[in-house]
Amino acid sequence: MCTLEKRGDIFFLTLTGDNEHRLSISLIESILSALAQAKSQATRGSVLITTAHGKFFSNGFDLDWALSAASKSESVERLGKMVTSFKPVVAALLSLPMPTIAALPGHAAAAGFMLALCHDYIIMRSDRGVLYMSEVDLGLPLPDYFSVAYRVKIGSISARRDVLLRGAKLKGAEAVRMGIVDSAHDSAESVVEAAVRLGEQLANKKWSGESYAGMRMSMYPELCGIVGLDVTVKPTPKL
């Protein structure tokens, strides 16, 4: 599952257990609950860092559960449930009243990559771990809100092509070069340390969370619209 811990101004949302952190219905619900808790406890200057135990950040939806169904139609239905259940996580991150940082200790694939991409900043390892959208290799359709997220979050057309249509497995240095990741570091510990340094810098700004969330949503109106967020929210000026 996941835990939420607050240290000073920084919330740490951690996917727990030494496994692939597959985004099952129960894990999705747990992440949503943690994000709601962080939102309810947010103060001026709050920051969220999302990370994970083990060598995976997240290996995407729980395909084993979907494929274990008694029929193909039920498998498709189970996959659809995960796609639908995950959409509110995207909405929650887009509307969260604080800066967000994904600190990846290892692989982030498919919906796990999407989870990372929905943060404001991504920090990953240079020595191991990849970003990978496996849908093209698995022959799975790309959910509509995934398509929009990749279009608005990855500015380079060639980078989007390589991620979505080539199924490229991006290591840290390449992901930084493509502008997908902000920095890459040589261990899981140094990734978290870099995320904390960045989090402390952002927390020191003492920004209004409401204003920050409103500005973030105004940057991605199409993505907000497709996940059901009201993009007419107006930030409150800092007085």
What's the SSE blueprint?
Layout: E1 2-7, E2 10-15, H1 25-41, E3 47-52, E4 56-58, H2 63-67, H3 72-95, E5 100-103, E6 107-109, H4 111-117, E7 121-125, E8 131-132, H5 135-138, H6 144-153, H7 157-165, E9 169-170, H8 172-177, E10 183-185, H9 188-203, H10 209-219, H11 221-226
Parallel strand pairs: 2-3, 3-5, 4-6, 5-7, 6-8, 7-10
Antiparallel strand pairs: 1-2, 8-9
Mean pLDDT, nearest integer? 95
Tally of separate helices? 11
Measured as a percent range, the helix fraction is: 40-55%
* Rg from alpha-carbon coordinates: 17 Å
CATH architecture: Alpha-Beta Complex
> End-to-end span in angstroms?
40 Å
| Name of the CATH first level | Alpha Beta
Total number of beta strands? 10
What is the makeup of the main sheet?
Answer: 6 strands, mixed
Would you identify the regions where 5 or more consecutive residues have pLDDT less than 50?
none
- What series of H and E elements makes up the topology? EEHEEHHEEHEEHHHEHEHHH
The CATH H-level superfamily is 2-enoyl-CoA Hydratase, Chain A, domain 1
How much of the sequence is in beta strands? 15-25%
| Tally of separate domains | 1
List the strand order in the largest sheet: 1-2-3-5-7-10
Quickly list its features.
2-enoyl-CoA Hydratase, Chain A, domain 1; 239 residues; Enoyl-CoA_hydra/iso; ClpP/crotonase-like_dom_sf; 48% helix; six-stranded mixed sheet
Notes on the protein architecture:
By secondary structure, this protein is α/β, with parallel strands linked by helices. It has a single domain, classed as Alpha-Beta Complex (2-enoyl-CoA Hydratase, Chain A, domain 1), CATH 3.90.226.10. The protein is 48% helix and 17% strand. It has 11 helices and 10 strands. It has helices at 25-41, 63-67, 72-95, 111-117, 135-138, 144-153, 157-165, 172-177, 188-203, 209-219, 221-226, and strands spanning 2-7, 10-15, 47-52, 56-58, 100-103, 107-109, 121-125, 131-132, 169-170, 183-185. Strands 1-2-3-5-7-10 form a 6-stranded mixed β-sheet, sandwiched between helices. Strands 4-6-8-9 form a 4-stranded mixed β-sheet. Strand 2 (10-15), helix 1 (25-41) and strand 3 form a beta-alpha-beta unit. It is globular, with a radius of gyration of 17 Å. The protein starts with a strand and ends in a 13-residue tail after the last helix. The mean pLDDT is 95. Pathway: Lipid metabolism; fatty acid beta-oxidation. This is Delta(3)-Delta(2)-enoyl-CoA isomerase. Its EC number is 5.3.3.8.
